[in-house]
Known about the structure:
Largest sheet: 8 strands, parallel, barrel
Number of strands: 8
Mean pLDDT: 96
Radius of gyration: 21 Å
Distance between the termini: 52 Å
Strand order of the largest sheet: 1-2-3-4-5-6-7-8
Low-confidence stretches: none
Structural class: alpha/beta
Number of helices: 17
Amino acid sequence: MSERLQELAAAGVSIWLDDLDRDLITSGGLQSLIDDSSVTGVTTNPAIFNKAISGDAGAYEEQLKDLAARGVSRGEAVRALTTADVRSATDIMRPVWEATNGVDGRVSIEVDPRFAHKTVQTVAEAKALWWMVDRPNTLIKIPGIAEGLPAITEVLGEGISVNVTLIFSPDAYVEVMNAWMAGLEKAAANGHDLSKIQSVASFFVSRVDSEVDKRLEAINTPEATDLLGQAAIANARIAYGKFQEVMESDRWKALEAQGAMPQRPLWASTGVKDPNYDDTRYVVDLVTRGVVNTMPGATMKAVADHGEITGDTIVAEIPAAQQIFVDLEAVGIDMADVFRVLEEEGVQKFIVAWEELLGTIEEALSSRGDNDA
Length: 373
């Protein structure tokens, strides 16, 4: 077992894999990651599924043939294929879910991102996915944008566990936490056991540096250059401070008294995009007890190989993080605009990935169709 990943888990960070494919499930690879790399959860998105199905069609061959023979639509085929993978992964993760009293052992699946700005459709899609996967350790991913907030409340109110995705700013994160608590209050009013409802808030990290660094390089002053590579980690640390504030609120303590579990911060987009930066920075610099870090395989391997786990790297650094934001504003970085751009781009990237996945499935079904039909 990786000693460094063990140290990360011992520091209180839940290690989730940001990847999934059928071969990983059937080969025993996912079980090995649980046993050898302290992995306790899985996150997915349309791009991950597209890579899996287009890259290893053999693993999906039998199901694709059956779907083609039935003449199903590409949308129905996508849901049949992806929910099958998530269902299988949740079954593998079930012992982790049981051992952690429902905290970990979770597998996420995303609502159709084309519904991101449509609240009613997002709620309907989330309920359908919860029913299709039919496993209590599933998380339904809903974008934490304006139209997603009432959907988050409604879905949690139905007793469905939720992974809120595409969160970029601390202020947006506060809105997400308010929607989450409103959902728990609604769930309690509907008679649901709050201890059975889990939620995480996926706060995106590396994309913030990508956008801010581009703007700092355009400013190109010594003061701006000194701030390169500092925005993303500072942003996440500030967000964690917001989480701490909510955990001290009377509203949360009332829900906790009814058995509710915290909505843990989840660090997403943790793969380092700039080769000049250490490839473990979005893991080792965001360590504190009770958070989740979801990593693509390459980042997980990097942490296992040379990640330096030095204990909590968030709480004591929050004041310094706040000063970094003051300094960014002083050199001309409009963080509100950064967050707006990242949110819009994030939704669009998911939509593009979804359309690409639909295209992959359409081609696969066509090539396997019954010519006599």
